[in-house]
Each structure stands twice: as structure tokens, then as C-alpha cells.
């Protein structure tokens, strides 16, 4: 029982973390509906699963990546992606329907695929994701014990992902209820807020690692 409680607690904490993807998930649910938001969230979940496999299979390599030089490189790549997307989203113009109930519109499968890829790429571009999954795996090893077998550890991580997804579903359903309250002006301001959040998050990634490198250089002099 303690096994599942720990996994569910970690999944819940990961779900309520207000990262950049959180705002896109809420915006997608409000503007495009529950199924579209689920498609986006499945992309996020798939990228998390890939990062878990990377962290498990290449655990030594992941440890070596966790150096100042490598972190700076990942920060510039990931931060640059987030900043560009932030500027794009800030100025992007959306066509907003005045229909209060637009759920009858069924997007094509290619639209769901685009949302899936969007969720995958935005989450995959965040260099912090692999490091917090590495921390989660370390916690799993401590909670379960390395002698308990790989299968039990994968079950632990699977419970985390399922819990993460279920709480995201609650956020998606809750956000959808806000659509009748949204006006074109509020949609526009929400998109601008998302753009600002992504831009500042990307800038924070870069500056944080630049400051870390500068501090280490000062100490080594």
C-alpha cells in the first residue's frame, strides 16, 4: 500500500507543478475542447516516458550530462526554443468563435496529431524534465530498493505517470467549464500571458546557468 501511496503522491505533485506546459494545457482545453487537450497531454506524457527510459537505460550518461558545460548547452537550446515560442504565441492571432458550445466541432485526426506533437516537443525541449525524472528514479530506487528488480521500479514509475495523467484530466475538464466565461479579449490576454510565461521561463533557464558558470569561474580563480 505504501508503494502505491508514494507513487500517487509523486504523480500528484508533478501534475500540480505550474510549468509552461500547464498553461498551454489549460488554454487548449478552454479554446479547443477536452479531446484536443487530451491529445496535447498524451504528447507530454509520451515525452516523459521517453525521458524515463533515457534516465533508466543511460543512467551513467545522464549523470555525466549533469555538468556545468553540458547544462549550459541544454539551457541555451531549451531556453531558446521556449523564448521563440513565447514571442510567437504572444503575437499569434486566433480566430475565436462566438459559439458558446463549440464541442460539436470535431477536429480532424491530423489536428489531434499536431497537438500531440506540440505537447511532445514543448515538454521534450525543457532540459529540466530529464533531470527531475532522474531525481524521481533515484527516489524510486530508495523507496523500493535496487534489489527488488527492474519490473517493480517500472511499475512504480508507471503508477506515477497514470496518476499524473488522471489529475491532468481533472484540470482539463475543470478548465473546459470556464469557456462560457471567456470573451475574445480574455482569450487574447491569456495567449499573451502564455507567451510571456514561455519567454521568461526560457530566459530564466539561460540566465540561471550563465550565473552558475560565472560563479564557478570566480571560485576557481
Task: Provide an overview of this structure.
There is one protein chain. By secondary structure, the protein is mostly helical. It has helices spanning 2-16, 20-32, 34-57, 59-65, 68-91, 109-124, 128-144, 150-176, 184-220. The longest helix has 37 residues, at 184-220. It is globular and about 55 Å long. The protein starts with a helix and ends with a helix.
Topology:
Layout: H1 2-16, H2 20-32, H3 34-57, H4 59-65, H5 68-91, H6 109-124, H7 128-144, H8 150-176, H9 184-220
Helix pairs in contact: 1-7, 1-8, 2-3, 2-8, 2-9, 3-4, 3-6, 3-7, 3-8, 5-9, 7-8
- Which stretches are low in confidence, meaning pLDDT under 50 for 5 or more residues running? 97-105
How helical, in percent, are the residues? over 70%
Listing every helix as H and every strand as E from the N terminus to the C terminus, the arrangement reads: HHHHHHHHH
- Total number of beta strands: 0
Domain count: the total is: 1
* Tally of helical segments: 9
Average residue-wise pLDDT: 75
Strand count, sense and barrel status of the largest sheet are: none
Amino acid at each position: 500500500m505504501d508503494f502505491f501511496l508514494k507513487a500517487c503522491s509523486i504523480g500528484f505533485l508533478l501534475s500540480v507543478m505550474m510549468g509552461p506546459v500547464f498553461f498551454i494545457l489549460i488554454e487548449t482545453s478552454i479554446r479547443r475542447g477536452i479531446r484536443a487537450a487530451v491529445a496535447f497531454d498524451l504528447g507530454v506524457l509520451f515525452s516523459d516516458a521517453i525521458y524515463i527510459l533515457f534516465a533508466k537505460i543511460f543512467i551513467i550518461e545522464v549523470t555525466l550530462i549533469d555538468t556545468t558545460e553540458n547544462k549550459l548547452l541544454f539551457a541555451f537550446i531549451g531556453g531558446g526554443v521556449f523564448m521563440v515560442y513565447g514571442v510567437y504565441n504572444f503575437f499569434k492571432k486566433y480566430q475565436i468563435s462566438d459559439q458558446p458550445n463549440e464541442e460539436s466541432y470535431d477536429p480532424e485526426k491530423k489536428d489531434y496529431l499536431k497537438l500531440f506533437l506540440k505537447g511532445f516537443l514543448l515538454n521534450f525541449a525543457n532540459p529540466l524534465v530529464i533531470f527531475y525524472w532522474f531525481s524521481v528514479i533515484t527516489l524510486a530506487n530508495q523507496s523500493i530498493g535496487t534489489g527488488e528488480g527492474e519490473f517493480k521500479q517500472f511499475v512504480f514509475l508507471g503508477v506515477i505517470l497514470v496518476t499524473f495523467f488522471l489529475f491532468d484530466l481533472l484540470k482539463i475538464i475543470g478548465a473546459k467549464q470556464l469557456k462560457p466565461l471567456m470573451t475574445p479579449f480574455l482569450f487574447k490576454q491569456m495567449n499573451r500571458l502564455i507567451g510571456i510565461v514561455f519567454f521568461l521561463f526560457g530566459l530564466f533557464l539561460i540566465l540561471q546557468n550563465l550565473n552558475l558558470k560565472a560563479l564557478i569561474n570566480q571560485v576557481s580563480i
